[in-house]
Amino acid sequence: MQKNMKLNGKIWLITNNNNLINDIDTDMIFHNRYLAITDINQMGQYAFDNLNGWKDFAKESEKGDIIIAGKNFGSGSSRQQAVDCFISLGIQAILAESFGAIYKRNAINSGLPILQIKKINLQKFNQREKIVINLVDGSTNSEYLEIEPFSKVQLDIYQSGNLFSYGK
Amino acid sequence: MGKTIVEKIIQSHSDEKVKAGKIVWMKLDIRTARDFGGPNVVKNLEKYYPDERLPDVENILFTFDCVVPAKTIPYANNQQICREFAKKQGIRVFDVDAGIGTHILMEKGFARPGRILVGTDSHFNILGAVGAFGQGMGDQDIAFTFCTGKTWFEVPETIKINLKGRFTFPTTGKDLVLFVLRKLGSKGALGKCIEYYGECLQDLSFAEYITLCSMMTEMGGIVAFPYPNENVTNWLIKRTGENPEFIFADRDAKYCNEIEIDVTDLQPQIACPPKPDNVKEVSRLKCLKVNSVFVGSCTNGRFEDMLQVSEILKGNKVAQGVMLRIVPATKEVYGQMLKEGLIQVLYDAGAIISNPGCGGCASGQIGMTGKREVQISTANRNFLGKQGDGDTYLASPVTAAFAALKGKL
Known about the structure:
Chain A is an alpha/beta fold. Chain A has helices at residues 26-29, 57-60, 81-89, 101-110, 152-160, 163-167, and strands at 6-13, 15-16, 19-20, 66-69, 93-96, 114-120, 130-134, 145-147.
């Protein structure tokens, strides 16, 4: 299957007092009280439900949305559910100023595009505005947003679908 | 150009030329999954590799430590999924009685210097205490490693930390790591390794090496390697029956940063809610009233930790209205506590003592905190809601024991 290298979607700026939130850990993304859940279809409803100010995210998000967050997104535990809950909601990509190391791997292995933000001028963006990003060269439709393109392994896994089809 | 410890370990497991920043394939010595993550590892394997006989099963393990024994039906079902799969494949299971998986890997001699071990536990980097490269991973990663025995990895850069000076009781290894976290912050080692050097390492017990390595995760780091001391060597000889062959960095190894941290006469430290790097001196929080105390977790659940607590509590009672919860890391620790009379001391002091496991961290095997409850915990995370609705402060077993005794800091 030929994968789309150019994504466009409506953004969610995950902010608090007009700043991107840093250190959103996996318990804020997918709290440990739901860890017995193994069915991906059940996971989406709990995304961000332990993140102050964002408890209704699952209800408000739409398929194809793009998340924009601060530094160290997905720090904490190794739970895959913290990635799968966004896949479950149909989130198209996650952009953040940096990612927790395990979270980054989990997303890459699942084929969920996550990209590091090089530069963003937050004031120039409106919540739910549409953006276009290019996974291969890191270009965007806005001069106020620069992102790192996919690494080679990330691109290869993304094109294959996930780690399993890539590694076979 | 010389190599850091992590570069050397990865190099010995890879056919490619290893250098920080490069993505390489590496072979893995031991692959494990626990009751969190484990059921999805099984699910992935059954979906992507149906009817496949896993190779090399003697180097694959299940370790149940999060919700032990299962307290709800979904957890019980998940553990049963792992047990049935393990039986079918001939995989060894350390079941709900065994304790924390990473600690078992060290006790049973699976973790040795220079080995690479992975599991569905973000504190797998604890294994840096014995000079092994431990790495926590998600269930897709682990499923893939079960089947292939390898994974891709971006070779991390390393920060060299020189610890200057020495400290003494009541300051311990936990205060040391909290202090480093205070200096570096939650992103201070993001995606990087740390090598620790300095004479204060000579004074640390093996349990304190575990503590020092475990909170690498809270700095965003991959794995920490403290320069091994005699206690580490003795532990390894006893557990593996051989003299350890530690991996040392080359003299001209390339570090991304070199930091000196002065720990001369370091005072006890405490991480205030809601973040592990929100660290202050304990003395600055004097008179904070405490409702409950948790001693345990992969960070501070060893016998030495329990001994410090019971020496402080011996012949005393915990303050009225304070709940003290004790969770040994493993069955071995529990057994030693029983044999050496610690269980009696702690029982007499009024503690609740549970079976071994992750205890307060993972979905609250030994209970969660309620709103406005103030908890002193020896664990490694105090994020909002992580251990309940209350306020969790992270501190050493010594600080925790005094808090239990006095009902305040």
